Amino acid sequence: MTGARAALARQFASYLGVSLAALAVHYGVLAVLVETGRADPVRAALAGYFAGAVISYGLNRRLTYASARPHAEATWRFGIVAAIGFGLTWLIMAGLTRGFGLPYLVAQVLATGAVVFWNFLGHRVWTFAVRPVAVLSEEATGVR
């Protein structure tokens, strides 16, 4: 495995570890809301997704991506990537529970499997990506 591929594999493994913590919160909220009758499975999944996203931001920023991007930039970027994941979760959960009648936990596992890759890539290439450093041309600097 090349150095770049090994680094990507380590980063994805870290992401999966962080995701487990966020998923514990997500699934906990989902189960409590459904089992207590406070929300239907789709709304409960979305509430769980939001709660898990809060955990995910802090841990991924620090552990997975070791980002130095200022919070003022990273939080709104994270929000956009998470909002798309939120929409995907809604579509998958609604389709599988309401459309196909699958049990909510089965539907959530399938939704999680799809959304985890979207979130990893979105955060890797955009939310927490290293900001490019401006390089001045020789003409602009006067150096040759």
TrEMBL record:
Set out the biological process GO terms recorded for this chain's protein.
polysaccharide biosynthetic process
- Domain (GtrA/DPMS transmembrane): give its ranges: 15-128
Membrane as a keyword of this entry, yes or no, is yes
Quick one: where is this thing mainly located? membrane
GO CC terms in record: plasma membrane
How does this protein lie in the membrane? Answer: Multi-pass membrane protein
**Record's subcellular location:** Membrane
The protein's matches in PANTHER family, at most eight in alphabetical order, are given as:
PROPHAGE BACTOPRENOL-LINKED GLUCOSE TRANSLOCASE HOMOLOG
> What family name appears in the similarity comment?
Belongs to the GtrA family.
User: What name does this protein carry?
Assistant: GtrA family protein
Q: Which organism is it from?
A: Methylobacterium terrae
